[in-house]
Amino acid sequence: MNKYRLLIETNDTKGLVYNISKILFEHNLNIDSNSEYVDDETNQFFMRSVISGEFNETILLRELKEILPDNASIKLTNKVKKDIVILATKEMHCLGDLLIKHEAGELDANITAVVSNRESLRNLVEKFNIPFEFISHENLSREEHEVFIIDAIKKYNYELIVLAKYMRILTPNFVQTFPGQVLNIHHSFLPAFIGANPYKQAHSRGVKIIGATSHWVTDDLDEGPIIAQDITRVDHSYSWEDMRDAGRNVEKVVLSKALDLVLKDKVFIYGNKTVIL
Asked: Is residue 193 scored above 70 in pLDDT?
């Protein structure tokens, strides 16, 4: 029996869950799982349902729109695996973790390509029989380089672009080309220590915990909606290099967790925050 994910975001009104469930019942659909959340401050309603059965998608969506507020966002998908393109530079811990999970069938995604501004990751990527695109940034402005990066991405199927330690600041043009599609891992527990060399920044402040943050990319550097975070403890004996090494383990776990949430359609972007259902 086919399974689908139904995602709804709208203003909260009385009887929403009842009315939605009634329509699903009338289409002889089973609700396998269901999660809801209402933001009391803004009266915004979020719902994620996994449903199963056979139905006419056009009719179902029309009937749902009829009983929901005019501003309602409705998404229905039955695609289990999404296509993703990964951007990386030279660090391999996050990329390697995703490649291994992909090879093991533990990633609800098809990695269609890896694009990098460095050649050093080619051998790793090609061991997994995944296309590798090397596009040097040498003697190019950031804008010029991104034209080639964008062209490379568009050669492949993609629904999501994952920055697996892609250590280049993206221009507004890139962000606007792929709106709401770029997932980043930042080697810091945001909002602390944004930008470059966060481990050096953390070391100079004598922090006792370090962390990583995975977030959507926006025009504001390292300030997009946060999806997942985690930390590990450190002490005065750690050099900034020790902090960096400890942080790499956190980075790959956080990126993998955030990507899993996105691939399973559990992440709603709401303003500069996320709702995870």
From this structure: no
Euclidean distance between CA atoms 3 and 31, whole angstroms: 10
- Counting the structural domains of the chain, the total is 3
Is residue 86 within 8 Å of residue 107, measured between CB atoms? Answer: no
Contacts for 103 with CB less than 8 Å, ≥ 6 apart: 128
Contact 29, 260 (CB under 8 A): no
Q: What is the CATH number of the domain that holds 93?
A: 3.40.50.170
Q: How far is residue 236 from each of residues 96, 202, 208, measured CA to CA in Å? A: 30, 11, 8
Query: Are residue 171 and residue 97 in the same domain, yes or no?
Result: yes
From 42, 77, 112, give the residue that closes a domain: 77
260 as an active site residue: the answer is no
19 and 9, same domain (yes or no): yes
Q: Is the pLDDT of residue 263 over 90?
A: yes
The mean pLDDT of 125-136, rounded to a whole number, is 97
The answer to whether residue 190 scores a pLDDT higher than 60 is no
Pairing of strands 132-134, 160-163: unpaired
Domain identity same for 256 and 170: no
Which position among 222, 235, 242, 245 bears the catalytic label?
A: 222
Beta partners for residue 43, in sequence order: none
Tell me: do 35 and 122 sit in the same domain.
Answer: no
Which of 19, 52, 77 represents a domain boundary (last residue)? 77
Mean pLDDT for the chain? 92
Burial 201-216 (b: 16+ CB within 10 A, else e): bbbeeebeebbbbbbb
Return the bridge partners of 212, or none: 230
Distances (CA, A) of 139 to 76, 110, 142, 143: 45, 33, 10, 12
Range of the domain at 158: 80-179
Residue 259's CB is within 10 A of a number of other CB atoms, namely 27
